[in-house]
Structures are given as C-alpha cells and as structure tokens.
Amino acid sequence: MDSHLLAERVARVRDGIERARARSGRTDAVTLVAVTKTHPADTVRAAIAAGLADVGENRVQEMDDKVAELGREAVRWHLIGHLQRNKAARAVALADLIHSLDSIRLAEELSREAVKAGVEVHALVQVNTSGEESKFGLPADEALDAAARMAALPGLRLEGMMTMAPFTEDEAVVRRTFAAARTLCEDAARQIPGFGRALSMGMSNDYEAAVEEGSTLVRVGSTLFGDRGT
Ligand SMILES: *Cc1c(COP(=O)(O)O)cnc(C)c1O
C-alpha cells in the first residue's frame, strides 16, 4: 500500500490515542497493534516501514504464513482471533501475545504446549463484557474464578484481559463494555498473584473511547489499511 498514505493514517491514529490519553489524564503507555488480517505480507512490510512494531492477526494459519515470509522477529505478533485447541502448539510457537484466551480448556492446552516447548506463553483472558451471544470470551460473572484457575497453570503468564465492544452506535453501551473489562482486570490483578494489568480493547471505530476507559492495547485494522472487502 502507498507508504505516504499509511504514514499519514498512522500519524492520525497515534494522535487520536495521544489526545484520548491526555483527556483521561493517563500517563501509562498505549500500544498500537496494527491488524493486518486478510492483507498480504507486503502490508506488514509497509507497517514496519511506517514505524509499527506490533501486528495483529486473527488466524494462526495466516500468522504462520506471514511469519514464514517475514521472520519471527520482524514484529511482535499478536493473535487476536478465536483460537482452536488443535492450533495451540502453533500459537505458542508464533505469537508474542495471545489476546483470545477464552476457556479453561484452551488455557490447559496452551500450558501443556508451553511446558513441552520450554517457553512461557503470554496471554490475555478474553471476557465477554457486552453480553452479546455472538462474542467469544468468558462471561463476566465467571471470569475471575476462571482466571484464577488459569493462573495456576505452569507456563502461562496472564498479562491482563481483552474485550470486544458490541455492534452498536451507542457510545454509552460501548464505554460500559470497556469499563466492565477494566474493573474485572483490576480485580484480577489485585486478587490473583502474577496477573497483569494490560487491557486489549478498542478497534477502528472505538479506540479513542477505549483509551479513555483504560485500554493499553488498541487493535486497529481498517482505519490504517482500508476495508478488507468483507
Ligand atoms: C479485525 C479485528 C480488529 C480490527 O478491526 P478494525 O475495525 O478493522 O479496526 C480488532 N480486533 C479483532 C479481534 C479483530 O478480529
């Protein structure tokens, strides 16, 4: 994609993040995860050239293909989509951070694969704080118990939580979804030894609101790279 256009869009998103941080009086860092799913490896190259160091993919196979082309160390690879247990081993090998840890059975599988590989897998517990049935993620009322059980597994480092806003134009509803995830994450960090405070929330349409509600990782795709044609 055109490098000037991308540089301009990156600057605009970074500026939006900065203004949202300023409005909410935050001093901690917000990482921009560039979501390159469905785009070719060349798009990741363009992202790197534009100064982006974190890339999000939602399928293990697609991440695998891009890692094969660009190298494991080219960027920090974020797996943001639902992960099937039979792909856990590949995910452990490829991803620097898995945002979509959404069940205890998946946590057990990731733990097993991490121990086998002699590595520590870094993950965020995905919570469904919108209550939308179509969304993956642990129900809010089960999240703390589940997180405590996951945290006890070897080879797994829980850095925080991830959530997705509901499909709505109603910003108050979106903000409530983010605020609920933040509260859950703060509770988990207080109650569970080793549980971190990273919060992955916010996409193209709502990343500024997410930053105001405490997001530390925004996952932005179409605003940077254009429509995916889906
Ligand atoms: C596709 C995707 C994004 C990015 O969405 P945009 O609206 O294009 O910014 C973020 N998070 C997840 C989990 C996604 O699947």
TrEMBL record:
GO terms for molecular function: pyridoxal phosphate binding. Keywords: Pyridoxal phosphate. The modification N6-(pyridoxal phosphate)lysine is found at K37. Belongs to the pyridoxal phosphate-binding protein YggS/PROSC family. Pyridoxal 5'-phosphate (PLP)-binding protein, which is involved in PLP homeostasis. PANTHER family: PROLINE SYNTHETASE CO-TRANSCRIBED BACTERIAL HOMOLOG PROTEIN (PTHR10146), PYRIDOXAL PHOSPHATE HOMEOSTASIS PROTEIN (PTHR10146:SF14). This is Pyridoxal phosphate homeostasis protein. It comes from Longimicrobium terrae.
